[in-house]
Amino acid sequence: MARVSLGMPELEAILEAALEEVGGTPGGLVPVLQRLQRELGYLPGPALAEVARRLRLPPAQVFGVATFYSQFSLKPKGKHLVRVCLGTACHVRGAPRIWEELARELEVGVDGLSRDGLATLEAVRCLGACALGPVVVVDGEYWGRMTPARVKALVRALREKGDAGEA
Ligand code: FES
Fold this sequence. Notes:
By secondary structure, this protein is of the alpha+beta class. It folds into two domains: 9-68, Arc Repressor Mutant, subunit A (Orthogonal Bundle), CATH 1.10.10; 80-164, Glutaredoxin (3-Layer(aba) Sandwich), CATH 3.40.30. It has seven helices and four strands. It has a four-stranded mixed beta sheet with strand order 2-1-3-4, covered by helices on one side. Strand 3 (136-138) and strand 4 (141-143) form a beta hairpin. It is elongated, with a radius of gyration of 19 Å. Bound molecules: FE2/S2 (inorganic) cluster. FE2/S2 (inorganic) cluster (FES) binds at residues 85, 87-90, 126-130, 133, 135. The site of FE2/S2 (inorganic) cluster (FES) has 12 residues, from helix 5.
């Protein structure tokens, strides 16, 4: 099937390689989406439409798979994932203030992504470490008993690590 220009050469190259890998068969949908997610960090809408066309699948089916599995994201994600617990135990110990400090320090927009693309901020409900509240988890690493001062240290550590992918 003929290629369609998406106006994004890098995306087109990644998409072509992913489709070639699965031989353009409908059964290759999940592997194609996994590769796009891995290489782009998210699944852009135009890419999903092109995947549907090339695999001869209804766009609604492709979109449905892309939104069903938590491994996929339709929005760009930061290089680091910062999860703030807003569960009851953390809430009463000041989690909302920690959330505000992180959002301010990282300059996070309404989509949860920091302005520089360094981090995505997410709110979660109970991380199972209530005694350490307020708790923040950065790329799987727990930061307990958070204070505004520790928020500054956390953000400094993230900026020092930069693109390394580990906090
Ligand atoms: S409520 Fe935050 S870890 Fe349980």
